[in-house]
Amino acid sequence: MRNSFPLFGTDDESIYNPDELLDLFLNCTADGFAIVDMENRFVRINHMYTEIFGYTEEDLIGKTFYEFSNPDFVGDLINDVKNGKTYANMITQRYHKDGSMLDIAVSYSPFRNRKGEIIAIIAIYRDITSIVRMENELHRTRELYELITENTSDMIKVFTKDKKIVYASPSHEKVIGLPPEKIVGRNLEEFLCSEEEAMLDEKIDEILETGEPQLLRKKFRTVDKNSIVYTEYNISPIYNEKKEVDSFVSVGRNITDRVKNDAAIRNLDRLSITGQLAAGVAHEIRNPLTALKGFSKLLQTSTDKQKQSDYLMIIMNELDRIDMIVNEFMSLAKPQAVQFVKGELCAIVDSTINVIHPQAIMHNVQIKTNYPQTKVELLCNPHQLKQVFLNFLKNAIESMPNGGIIHIDINLNEAGKVEVHISDEGPGIAAELLRHLGTPFYTTKDKGIGLGLTISNKIIQEHNGSMKIESSVGKGTTIKVELDYIVNALKK
User: Would you say residue 9 lies in a domain?
Assistant: First the structure.
């Protein structure tokens, strides 16, 4: 048999002898190699072995593997390999020369001569420390994730772009009475009404366009239908390896208690306003009552048919005036179900002015309005908006104890919104106090409860609007409210 052979082609430069070929192989492999003879002595190692364990040829060649730190079972494995057995990809831990622990995948196989006799053992080592560390970290992260999702009170769902639910946390059963196995695999639309479905589609489109998480509120009955649950969901995108939105995760929180508390606080604020307006309403009703008494007596004594007709007309007008005041007052005092309907903004403001008018008269305050030529319709809750504007007007009146003028301007801006500006001629608010306005229970009034502006701002936000307060000491205060309006209504 030849001592050398052609590896590539037949020219002399491509001729390698076996030792050179072994060196070429050992130096080109990405694994660490060690050859141990039948007396357990190291006879060859490659440079990758040195990189993995830190030992050089001078440290190892001629020495037995028993002189170095090895797991106890290695001796038995070596004996098995000497008898012809092979071990592949055994996951073990070995020590580096500096004492650090390494995770190693090792394979042992017998090395035979031309006669088939085992003359040495080949050990192949692959450093998998970083892989094992990543797997352990992934396992710990998965355990932590499972711990959070199994015990959190928030309802966590993962759903695809076609709204198929692929994961639901156990907390769903506590909140709505449905276990995860009855949720996973179903379409999200099964749990939404048509209005909420349209809102979800809009939120998903915004996520796909901006990449930003979106909030969605939902109201539904529990499975036993004994109670209504209000939830607030934060929906975020999940990206695939191509940085494309692959699915979505929603974290829902039960906000039923918060909604009930908000309703209670709003009712408290409404009743507070109602109580303060009671004196003004009584004063306003007293005027038409005086006229009613007077003209009733004249009606009794007069025989002139024309005068009687005039007196009756005046009496009817005054009764209508009383009826309007009482109705507006009761609509404010009576709690209303939160429901969005079409409402005409100027009519809502006028209705609010009618309620506050008695108090304005008592304080010698005039209210002047400037409305656009066309109707401005909103999708809103008129009673809530009335409460907002009533808060603003009441604050403006109280800021002018010696009288003055309140200007209400409604106009359409270039951003496609309608603006309502309510300006007074009061003393204004200092800058250091202005930034605290709207904070719950913060008030600059002696008898205020500090909830009016907080509630007003929340109501405006629920109408997808915004509120801004501008004030200068000695120049008065202006409250600017910006709301969405129905564009088609203006085209009619």
Answer: no
